[in-house]
Amino acid sequence: MLFNNHGKEIPMKFSMFNVWSIDDNDSLLLYNTLSGAVSVFDIRPKVILTALEQSNVSLIPRKYVTAMTEDGYLVEALTDELQRITKLVEERKSRVDEYAISIILNLKCNFKCIYCFEHQTGKEISSPRIRGVVELFERISRTAKKIEIDWFGGEPLLSFGLLKKINDQFMEIAKRKNLKYSHSITTNGYLLTEDKVQYLSRTPVSSVIVTLDGTEVSHDASRPLKNGKPTHAVIVGNVKRAVDAGLHVVVRMNLIKLNKECVIEMIQTLENLGLKNRVELSLQAVVSSEENPCEGICLKGEERANAILDAYLYAVQNGWRSFPATEKLRVLSLCIGEYPGRMIISLDGSVFRCSQADKESKVGKVSLSGTVAFDNVSNSSWVNSNPLNDEKCKRCAFIPLCMGGCRLKRMRNKEDYCLDWVRNTKKFLQLLVRNESLALK
């Protein structure tokens, strides 16, 4: 029990954001999704587990009360914890001086991926649109503290000359305005040649995101060249070249039914190439869309959650620092499309909130003079989104992590918008505990 300054006992309760499980070693794993605290208890004296199951704080031994309160597992009985969620929503909405802008340089690609959602028209961003984008950058740099650019496509490296031209102008403006600027590139990696790597290494590039869909066999089946030829070997060589040049490379794997059994072998391949902890791992499930309905190859529900969790568990058990520390875990799940300064600019200047870039996430348009005309209704549906408007979310202990889950799925009235971690809490907590232990080494 706790006492106030007058010696009066303070009534306490368990936080609504506590999640727990018993691991394979018969220990209690306890995690608070708001505070980020994660703890391991010996449950041979089952008093803490019993207290959690019965929601009876009085059963907690006095020696644990102070520490559990500091970690956020216990809160004052009159605390309205959902007010903190409201505060997080307001904090997100108030970040109007930070921008993360994806620029689609083209709609052409040298690959023919089986799950691609884009319409490959072969078009490239025009000179007038380039001037509009640069003018937009100039305008927002007057008040922004931070601007991040992601080069996107199609395949952005097919327009590398344009990338350099625009990026050089951005760097010049940022230097002149004393602005914090960085850029990244999302690429299939096939054209990540020496000259491109050398240019990127001389610029403030935060990451190079390259997709490898598992083993050579599975990757080449899902991500071949347009002529059907394989791509895996070339990409792996280019990844190693980029890492050796000092670039931060994120190796992303798009999980589908075809490659779900290949994740661990891919991790082993990267390790054999000397890339352990020299690249970042990112496991993402492919989502079917109206633009490319691919439900037949997509993983669903528990199957998807277990594939991702098992892969991350294998990685941390083998020394990979691939999963974010608990204090940074929210970046895995927050919908960045809901931030005011987040936008995706297409070839015709249309502004979208989601990388699926479909009509449901279109919120405005950038003019040739660099101004943005927002559709107030559609834009508000994203930036003013509040997970507390959903009764299911309001009762969920994971809400501080996901803040409502996938916004696009929610707009489409899909049921499957929740975090995958919810589907297997035990594996998720095992992953957190092992990851935190690794981070301390």
What can you see in these coordinates?
With 441 residues, this protein is an alpha/beta fold. The chain has two domains: 2-79, no CATH class; 89-381 and 417-422, Aldolase class I (TIM Barrel). The chain is built from 15 helices and 17 strands. A ten-stranded mixed beta sheet has the order 13-12-11-10-9-8-14-15-16-17. Strands 4-5-6 form a three-stranded antiparallel beta sheet, with helices on one face. A two-stranded antiparallel ribbon has the order 1-2. It is globular, with a radius of gyration of 24 Å.
How large a portion of the residues is in β-strands, by DSSP E? Answer: 15-25%
CATH class of the largest domain: Alpha Beta
Secondary-structure-derived class:
alpha/beta
CATH superfamily of the largest domain: Aldolase class I
Count the helices. How many? 15
CATH architecture of the largest domain: Alpha-Beta Barrel
Q: How many beta strands in the DSSP annotation?
A: 17
Poorly predicted ranges: none
* CATH topology call of the largest domain: TIM Barrel
The end-to-end span amounts to 34 Å
- As a percent range, the share of helical residues equals 25-40%
Task: Kindly provide the radius of gyration, computed on alpha-carbon positions and rounded to a whole number of angstroms.
Answer: 24 Å
Give the overall average pLDDT. Answer: 89
Number of domains: 2
